[in-house]
Amino acid sequence: MKSLKEPFINHINGIVENNESFDAFLEKKLKNKERINTVKKLAIYIVFFDSLIFSQNFENSMQVFFFSRRSMYDYIAAYYHPDMGNYGFETYNIYIPSTKRIQRRPIISFDKNGKIPYEEYKDIPIATKEEVLISVAAHEVRHRLQYNNLVEPIKRNSVSRNKKVNGFIQYNAIELEWMRKFFCQNNYPEEFIKNRMSNEEFDASLIELIILSQIRDNASVEKVIKTLKMEI
Ligand SMILES: [Zn+2]
Fold first, then answer.
1. Model confidence at 52, in pLDDT bands (50, 70, 90)?
2. How many whole angstroms from 82 Cα to the centroid of ligand 1?
3. Is 21 a domain residue?
4. Fewest CB atoms less than 10 Å from the CB: which of 55, 56, 176, 197?
5. Is residue 1 included in any domain, yes or no?
6. DSSP state letters, 114-164
């Protein structure tokens, strides 16, 4: 993923609240340099993927809005918002305080036979923050593809001819089930749980998982974009 560079920040044009510069806005909201970097990079990666999928012309790229409040459940850092009449256009929303919740995570991968290529749990590599941000951005852009009916979501019971992909589907189903139990035990609202368990979330989480492993394998941007548009 060598081509992901800073200049894309210039194309983020949806700063709400006032007209100050992006940097000034973030510096006012966040004192911590690392946190500023996290928010910036998340926005850059979203715009990068979105531009490659939806337009060759960066001027027409998606609006990214930044909110200085937490998302509804403080669990979601970035959110694709379809045009529901709120703004008159689609947006990606980044909830600045909730970006604190973006954590490093294990990189799950599967070999060509659909098996996990690790003997022990401790051998599973852990993604860097940067890798996680890229995969989270891909997740959100996948939602835009879904809502515009440009991809048929991959479901829990979908079966691919590619055993590697099937490994990811099965793993993702188990992980989401584990999350469902966690949400229930912690009394998350029913509506929230229903949304997190939807076919759209299953599909976007699956793409996120696959792309996370591809980044670690130094996949080309072309390969990652192909995964972002994957159908079975
Ligand atoms: Zn999602």
1. confident
2. 12
3. yes
4. 56
5. no
6. S----SSGGGS-B--HHHHHHHHHHHHHHHHHHHTTSSPPP-TT---S-HH
Record the tokens describing residue 165, joined without a space. Answer: 């992909």
> Quick one: tokens of 181?
């139990």
- Span 68-111, pLDDT tens digits: 777 776 678 898 988 766 666 788 888 888 898 898 999 999 99
User: Above 90 in pLDDT, residue 173?
Assistant: yes
Whole-number Å distance, alpha carbon 29 to ligand 1 midpoint, is: 25
Residue with tokens 């835009």, as numbered in its chain: 144
Distance CA 80, CA 195 (A): 14
In angstroms, what is the C-alpha Rg of the chain? 18
Q: What is the number of structural domains in the chain?
A: 1
In a domain, 186, yes or no: yes
CA angle, 60 then 221 then 216, to 5°: 130
Distance in Å, CA 133 to ligand 1 centroid: 14
Residue span of the structural domain in which 188 resides: 6-228
Could you tell me if residue 218 is inside a domain?
A: yes
* pLDDT tens track for 138-162: 999 999 999 999 999 999 999 999 9
Q: Where is pLDDT greater, at 171 or 24? A: 171
Ligand 1 mean position to 16 CA, how many Å? 22
Please give the model's pTM, rounded to 2 decimal places.
0.88
In this structure, what DSSP letter does residue 76 have?
-
211 Cα: distance to centroid of ligand 1 (angstroms) = 14
Distance 186 CA to ligand 1 centre (A): 20
Listed residues: CB within 5 A of ion ligand 1: 201, 204
Residue 10 is predicted with a pLDDT of 39
